[in-house]
Amino acid sequence: MASEMQLALVAALLRRGRGLDLLSNALTLLALAYGLAPLLGAPHSAASSLLCGLLVMLGLAQKYWAIRVALDAELFARLAADTAHLAEHTSDLDQALHSLGLQPASTQPRDWQERCRGAVRLLRLQAAWLVAQLLLALSIILATPWLSLAG
Question: Has residue 24 got a pLDDT over 70?
Answer without folding.
Answer: yes
